[in-house]
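hey so u asked for the seq, here:
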Amino acid sequence: MGPAAPIPAAELRAAVDPVRPWLAGEAEPPPRPVLAAAVKTSARWLAQQAPGRSVELRVPPHVAVQLVPGPRHTRGTPPNVVETDPATWLRLVTGALTWDEALARGALTASGNRADLSPYLPLAPLR
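ran it, C-alpha cells below
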C-alpha cells in the first residue's frame, strides 16, 4: 500500500466549513460523521504539510497521525505527543483559538521538545 493521495485545500475547506457555526457557538454540534471528517481531514492535511514522524497528534476518538520532521519514533509511547479534543483541534486549525490560549486553558497537552505545533496553526487555507 503506497502513500495516501494528497488532500487538496478545497477538500480541507469542504470538510471544515460545515462545523464552523458550531465552533462559533451558533449551532448545535454537527453529526458525528461530519465532525469526524473535519477532524480527520484537517489532521491529515497538517501531516502532509509537516511530513515526518517525530510528533504524534492525537484527537480522540477520531484520529492519530505522525508528523513534523525529526527523529522517527517506532515503538512504545512517542516522546513528542500532542493530544486534544475535537472542538479544540478545530478551533486551532481555523484560528479561532491560539496554541498558547489552548495550553493556558488546559485544552491540550503537548509533551516533548518538538510538540509545539503553533508554527503550523492555523492551517493556511482556513485562515
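The chain has a mean pLDDT of 92. The first strand starts at residue 55 and ends at 59.
lmk if thats what u needed
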